[in-house]
Each structure stands twice: as structure tokens, then as C-alpha cells.
């Protein structure tokens, strides 16, 4: 699990884009392609190296109902495992 005060950022060589064919947000990285749902795409977009996981959860809470900081931390942890993001802290 990633700490709520950890600050995630997109890894070098990773590109976030919208795939017109799949009609979905995707993350392109050297090991492959990760298709994201709308919420996950919002999390990735906020992994800017400035906001903490807790701050990302607060921001998403303004847009989506039922956002739990622990869920965001879990998603960021999975993104770290997939080598899409790194965390500081």
C-alpha cells in the first residue's frame, strides 16, 4: 500500500492518451498498454509530482461520489507495480 502522504508522478517513458479505437483512456509504457476506466484516468492525470495521494483523493471527491483515500492509495500502488508511476515519500 502507498502512504497517503506519498507524492506520485508519471514515470519517464510513460504516455497517457485517449485511444479512439478503444474509446478509452490508455497508458502506454515500455512493457505494454494499460486501458483505464474514467476514474483511473483521473487519478493518473493528477499524478503530477506535486499532489500527495491524499490530496488526489480530496480532488477526486469533488468530482466522484464515494471516493475513499485508501482506494486511491491502492490504485496508485498497483500503478507503481505496473511501473507506470513512481512515488516520492
From TrEMBL:
Pathway: Cofactor biosynthesis; pyrroloquinoline quinone biosynthesis
InterPro entries, A to Z: PQQD, PqqD_bac, PqqD_sf
Gene Ontology molecular-function annotations: quinone binding
Superkingdom of the source species: Bacteria
Keywords: PQQ biosynthesis
Biological process (GO), any one: pyrroloquinoline quinone biosynthetic process
Subunit description: Monomer. Interacts with PqqE.
NCBIfam families: PQQ_PqqD
Record's protein name: Pyrroloquinoline quinone biosynthesis protein PqqD
Amino acid at each position: 500500500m502507498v502512504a497517503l502522504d506519498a507524492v506520485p508522478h508519471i514515470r519517464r517513458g510513460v504516455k497517457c492518451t485517449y485511444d479512439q479505437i478503444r474509446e478509452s483512456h490508455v497508458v502506454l509504457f515500455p512493457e505494454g498498454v494499460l486501458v483505464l476506466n474514467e476514474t483511473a484516468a483521473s487519478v493518473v492525470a493528477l499524478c503530477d509530482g506535486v499532489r500527495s495521494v491524499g490530496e488526489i483523493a480530496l480532488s477526486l471527491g469533488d468530482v466522484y461520489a464515494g471516493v475513499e483515500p485508501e482506494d486511491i492509495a491502492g490504485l496508485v500502488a498497483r500503478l507503481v507495480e505496473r511501473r507506470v508511476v513512481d512515488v516520492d515519500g
